[in-house]
């Protein structure tokens, strides 16, 4: 089955698209609001992903889920503040998950990320968010996203070769 991609990944496209579509179906919104929410989801996901290197041990399903959380909030609330709260909360949830390039475990990471997007949207719709004083979260969402890029770029440098080493150690000749 064809899938919408995001940042060149079908799994990231699934995370950025399916939760927003489910929310739009649930809310019974019109076509224009659905399309706007999907566009916002992909734009936020691309923006969050832009700070990451081309190859990293950082699981980018989490950045796609930032977009999904934004899109869900646009569908259900429509306010900038709801979108901002949801994206801020996402920077404190599943961010930092490790990508090991495996198909089945990637599907689990897609599920965890989509679940986190829904959770962040529900918190946001209740007027809540993870405070900017917590962990990687920042009061300024752009600063939080830049921090995520730094984590994926600098913080995961040693993780990539270690994952490769662990995978190669399983190969018996």
TrEMBL record:
Name of the protein in question: Serine dehydratase-like alpha subunit domain-containing protein
Q: List the Pfam families hit by this protein, alphabetically.
A: SDH_alpha
Q: Name all Serine dehydratase-like alpha subunit domain ranges.
A: 1-164
Which InterPro entries does the record associate with it? Answer: Ser_deHydtase-like_asu (IPR005130), UPF0597 (IPR021144)
The record's annotation in PANTHER family points to: UPF0597 PROTEIN YHAM (PTHR30501:SF2)
**Coiled-coil region(s):** none
Going by the entry's taxonomy, the superkingdom of the source organism is recorded as Bacteria
